[in-house]
Design goal:
Layout (H helix, E strand, L loop, with lengths): L7 H16 L10 H10 L5 E5 L7 H4 L7 E5 L7 H14 L3 E7 L3 H8 L6 H12 L5 H17 L2 H8 L3 E7 L6 E3 L1
Parallel strand pairs: 1-2, 1-3, 3-4
Antiparallel strand pairs: 4-5
């Protein structure tokens, strides 16, 4: 396993500081320069955090955390649910790229959470809403349901054998909720 590129606490501080910049921004703050693109082509990526979040087009982790190319390893899936594919991606970013922090970030006004509470969808969407229903039980409040869904995803990640071993070496897994209405990230 590759050594972590920084402590999980330092990575969390970078995310919080980046979100503060984002709250006052009108344009992006992360480095997306040609020089950085060439550098990462030659030297690879070294993301300081893994962000597991929803596919919602209003949730843009690189912007939310004022991050640029190579800063974040972002895994997006509707409802920020976790299965073997996401676990494999997390293990890759942590084990091979040295990312010390995993953030599972839900968001307010999530369509997948709303569908799990108020509807019984058909087709492939049902796989997502069934996962969310397991997380939220009978909860009817959207925000509390979002938090419960984040917590379930964290529990799944933490019970992954390889992730558990990495946590013993300093990796951290934290939950967060992005507030679409004002851009704030609330770490749980």
């Amino acid at each position: 396993m590759r050594a972590f590129i920084m402590t999980a606490d330092k990575a969390l501080k970078k995310l919080k500081d980046g979100n503060k910049k984002y709250l006052d921004s009108e344009t992006g703050k992360g480095n997306i320069s040609r020089a950085l693109r060439l550098y990462t082509k030659e030297h690879g990526q070294h993301p300081y955090a893994i962000i597991v979040t929803c596919s919602d087009s209003r949730v843009i982790p690189e912007s939310i955390f004022s991050a640029g190319i190579g800063d974040l390893f972002v895994i997006r899936v509707a409802g920020n649910v976790i299965d073997d594919h996401q676990l494999g991606s997390i293990e890759y970013a942590a084990g091979h790229l040295g990312s010390p922090l995993i953030v599972v970030m839900g968001h307010t006004f999530c369509g997948a959470v709303n569908a799990a509470i108020h509807h019984d969808p058909e087709g492939y969407i049902k796989y997502i809403t069934d996962e969310i229903k397991q997380a939220i039980g009978d909860e009817q409040d959207d925000f509390r349901a979002c938090c419960l869904n984040v917590k379930r995803s964290i529990d799944i990640i933490e019970h992954s054998l390889d992730i558990h071993k990495m946590e013993e070496k300093g990796m951290a897994v934290v939950g967060a909720v992005y507030h679409i209405e004002d851009g704030r990230v609330e770490f749980l």
